[in-house]
Amino acid sequence: MTKGIKLETLKQVIERSKFDLSTDDVLSDIDRDEFEEILNFAEENWEEVNFIINMAISHSLNRLAIRSSFAADIE
Predict the structure, then answer these.
(1) Contacts of 6 (CB under 8 A, 6+ apart)
(2) At 57, phi and psi to the nearest 5?
(3) I need a labelling partner for 20 at 20 to 30 A (CA). Which of 12, 27, 56, 74 fits?
């Protein structure tokens, strides 16, 4: 019994998780004026925005790790 996950299984997990890792669905609902407001807010509040972005990335990576773990258990 080997520990870990096969590369092909990991590729499938990542492929199926693309929606979670994509920002296109969020950005597609933002018009130009809203986008400029968001950028201005981000520039003025960079520390808070950076914290939120890091938390979102961490959460996405945790979900990816959990899915990979389940996929490895199924193998």
Answers:
(1) 72, 75
(2) -65, -45
(3) 74
pTM exceeding 0.90 = no
Residues 4-22: pLDDT tens digits? Answer: 677 787 778 777 777 666 6
- Domain residue extents for the chain: 7-66
Ranges of beta strands (E only) in 34-74 are none
- Which residue from 9, 11, 12, 16 is spatially nearest to 75, judged by alpha carbons? 9
Q: At 6, list the tokens.
A: 């096969």
Q: Please state at what angle helix 32-44 crosses helix 46-74, rounded to 10 degrees.
A: 100
Give 44's contacts (C-beta < 8 A, 6+ positions apart): none
